[in-house]
Amino acid sequence: DNFAHRTAVRQALANDKDWQGKFISAALPLLEKQHNEVAYLVPWCQLGKPPKEGGVYEWVTFHMKPGGPALWGEAFRAAINAHINTGYTRLIGVFHTEYGLLNTVHVLWWNESPDHRAAGRHSAHEDARVVAAVRDSVRFLESQQNALLIPLQCSPLK
Q1: For residue 65, is it left (φ>0), alpha (ψ between -120 and 50) or beta?
Q2: What is the similarity comment for this entry (predicted)?
Q3: pTM to 2 decimal places
Q4: Which domains does the chain have, with CATH numbers?
Q5: In the chain, N or C terminus with fewer CB closer than 10 Å?
Q6: Strand duo 104-111 + 56-64: pairing
């Protein structure tokens, strides 16, 4: 919620012997590298929920040109809204980095299945509304990376 809360949680975990013994000691040998960042939900987006249990998520990371949302925010938002308005996928949240690699935006989408996601993406590529909005937004894009996420049973987003 805030940096004071984050600091308190990190301190509590550092002092939690059960956490240290069962998780950290087991995970450390498997750890090759770690990347940390702090991101916030953009002001124009509310955190969504999937319409039902199950499904898959797509985590899309956009590295935008330097200048921040003042430069590319309006075009980026229009591209996101074009995807939302078509109904090909469901938005869960849009997050912008505060610390870490700046000008990074993460978008979390929900789909019923990987096949449903593929069909929606294909339809979006042929939808003039989406194509026009994305064309305007990509002029600010440096790179993009997509990952398919399949939640575990313990995930609150399962």
Answers
A1: beta
A2: Belongs to the NipSnap family.
A3: 0.85
A4: 1-34 (no CATH), 37-149 (3.30.70.100)
A5: N
A6: antiparallel
**Cβ atoms within 10 Å, residue 85:** 12
Q: Which tokens go with 116?
A: 């449903």
Crossing angle for the helix pair 128-138 and 114-125, nearest 10 degrees?
80
Q: Give dist(CA 151, CA 113) in Å, integer.
A: 12
Q: Yes or no: say if 50 and 93 are a contact pair by the CB < 8 Å rule.
A: no
Size of the chain, expressed as the number of residues it contains? 158
Query: What are all long-range contacts of 128-136, with beta carbons under 8 Å and residues at least 24 apart?
Result: 129/82, 129/85, 129/86, 130/79, 130/82, 130/83, 130/86, 132/82, 133/75, 133/78, 133/79, 133/81, 133/82, 134/79, 134/82, 136/75, 136/78, 136/79
Mean pLDDT by runs of 10 across the 158 residues of the chain is 84 88 86 91 94 94 94 96 94 95 96 95 94 96 96 82
Assess contact for 86 and 58: CB atoms under 8 A.
no
